[in-house]
Amino acid sequence: MEKRRKWTKYEIQFVCENAGKMTAKEMGEKLNRTRQAIQSQANRWGLSVLVQPADAHDAYLCRELYKEGLTIPVIAEKMELSRRAVSNIVFSDCY
Hints:
mainly alpha, 60% helix
């Protein structure tokens, strides 16, 4: 049976700062934790990991940055949005 790794101050801070901006899966990849571990701990800390939709101005900026040649991951980092959110904005007519 594998022993559970204790959460570091850095990991806790990272999740707190990125909850609502990055998906649990994306945070897990950055921290070498599972999506379930991120969701469970965020819930214990009273955080929601649901990514908030971008407003019209952010959507406009994402599309313009993409037209300028920036990649989805770069835009996501600059705009503090998940890659999925940026991809949805860039490739969807809904925004």
